[in-house]
Write a structure and sequence with these properties.
Distance between the termini: 30 Å
Structural class: mainly alpha
Largest sheet: 2 strands, antiparallel
Length: 75
């Protein structure tokens, strides 16, 4: 059985984050926003709700990007 960390494993729905580019950066599917963009915006504005407004995302997408970044980077 596949791990829940596998991309695309979530009740059969499309993955929310895809790996893109040579470094495999996390990119929010259906947007032009990378997970690192969300992290940088959060560092700047300090609120998930404000990040969502600034980047044109839902708060759920912001949380998904932050979780993905937490699991896949060494910060």
């Amino acid at each position: 059985m596949a791990s829940s960390d596998d991309p695309g494993i979530c009740g059969g729905s499309a993955p929310a984050i895809m790996h893109r580019g040579p470094d495999g950066e996390g990119w929010l599917t259906g947007t032009r926003v990378y997970a690192r963009d969300v992290v940088e915006a959060l560092d700047r504005v300090g609120s998930e709700a404000e990040v969502a407004r600034e980047l044109g995302l839902s708060e759920h997408q912001v949380r998904v990007a932050l979780e993905w970044d937490d699991r896949h980077t060494n910060r």
